[in-house]
Amino acid sequence: MGIQERKEREKERRRQQIIVAAKRVFSEKGFNKATMEDIAKEAELSPGTLYLYFKNKEELYASLSLRILQYLHIRVTHVNKETSLSPDQKLAALMEAMYDVYDFDPLIIINMFHLQSSETLKNLSESLLTEIKELSKKSIGAIAKIFEEGMDKGIYVDRHPVALADIFWSMFSGVVLWEASKKIISSEKDYLKSTLATAFELFERGIRKAD
């Protein structure tokens, strides 16, 4: 292994060390109360070292979302590649994939939805914002393909497939955020997956062409 390769590996290891520490701090204190100093202490690094890797707290917060977006894109792309499945079967597989995306990291996916509806995006570096936008666009495009195939086969209503993908994603994020807020009030009640199941069922009925 060359010197440059070792440096790159060490840089990535340190970056992941910071991200893991940030996740712990954000989980414990929330985004608003957490500071770069808190994260540096958790990572056992100096605050100055953090700024070598991340422009600000917002970038650290947003970087946590990238793993979710990458996983979402992988799962949905895999569904699209299953050529033996009918559009209905692909839609069922897509819904199952969404449960997996949530289970992959519930805390971070909730943070990601908050991020998407906040001013935080304005404080990100151009490169990170571009990466988030590209991954989001690819994932929505992959979801849209499933609806487009169903339209082509006369199963689903004739609407713009990207619009349907946007509605599907908005429904998913809305249910996750709402149920998460309810759980804060009463931790004994957790109806997220049962509510998602109902939402998915109603969505599927809504996009199906009338006989």
From TrEMBL:
The record, for InterPro entries, names: DNA-bd_HTH_TetR-type_CS, Homeodomain-like_sf, HTH-type_Tx_Regulator, HTH_TetR, Tet_transcr_reg_TetR-rel_C_sf
Query: What keywords are assigned to this protein?
Result: DNA-binding, Transcription, Transcription regulation
- Signal sequence coordinates: none
Q: Does the keyword Transcription apply?
A: yes
Keyword Transcription regulation assigned to the entry: answer is: yes
Which parts of the sequence belong to the HTH tetR-type domain?
Answer: 12-72
The Gene Ontology terms for molecular function here are: DNA binding
DNA-binding region location: 35-54
Q: What is this protein called?
A: AcrR family transcriptional regulator
